[in-house]
Amino acid sequence: VLERGWLSDVWPLQYARKFLPTLDHVVSEEPDDMTREYLNHLVYVVRETNARRGPVVEIAKSYAEMERIHAEGKIAIIHTIEGAHSLNGNLDNLDDFHRRGVSAMIVPHMYPNEACYSCANAIPEDTILRKIGCFQQTFCPDKGLTPWGRELIDKMLDIGMIVDMTHGTPTFRREVLDIAGDDRERPVGGE
User: What are phi and psi of 116, to 5 degrees?
Assistant: First the structure.
């Protein structure tokens, strides 16, 4: 799900969406609704695949389910979300997505969102898009979680959802690890 910043920061998208209905749909919908649409589509793909090939794939909602699915010789799909912007600022969406099988979320993505003030600088300076004026966001390594982001991380850990720290600033990563504490039952990951 694209962040709202993409449309203004990657200015060629403003023109491309006029010619690409799918892109226009993706950037016009609310992020939580787009996330539901993607999750529903994956459920459809799993059902369609199993209808064609027999029971070969299943969505794993936990580590135990992943082990079971693998032991049965099937492919285990793990739902993940890239960016807390997909929650659209609503913690209730986390519960909904978790019920649908989302077991991990990369909290920061390409742009700051409701959960974190800054993200890692993922676009190299010498890329053509930067040279034509895209991806001008300022990288602030000393910024981390927002107050809402702290609530989000705590809730993710409480329900057993993996907090993926990929794209996070060093400050963000420290804050997540502080919230997780020494409890090994609270899953945290990242690159």
Answer: -145, 145
